[in-house]
Amino acid sequence: MNKTRGCTVIVLLAAVFSLAVTSEARQRFKWWQSDEVASEIGLTVAQATAIEGIFQALRPKLREFARRLHREEDELTAIMHAMRAEEWEVALQIDRVEAARSALSKTRTLMLYRMHKTLGAEQLEALHAMWERRRSDGKSSSRDPD
Length: 146
Fold this sequence. Notes:
The protein is mostly helical. The chain has a single domain (3-140), classed as Four Helix Bundle (Hemerythrin (Met), subunit A) (Up-down Bundle), CATH 1.20.120.1490. Helix content is 76%, strand content 0%. It starts with a helix and ends in a 9-residue tail after the last helix.
């Protein structure tokens, strides 16, 4: 993979990640289980099974990181509303929030990277083209890719 293609893949992964961040309460779209996606990109049953395995393996970790992030955000909100903390205490809590957010983001991005590694180059390009088309059509706002 040349440098330009590598940078493009990283940018696309970042874009997919930014589209995919949703609340826990919202139903996620498992694109690898969609007949439409499988047909469009030529996803095999073996690939879909491997991707589901990656998702299931990281799901508990993602949930824990999301819970940690919510706890740290709640603590920051409480500190900010109380208006009794020193500025360094607020800064420290901000660092905790951002560390939690970073752990969640890193794990999620690595999960997507592992999922994408199961695909061939043509499949990956077709998947990105489909997401870009859906995003430009406004469809990704209701069902974000995982």
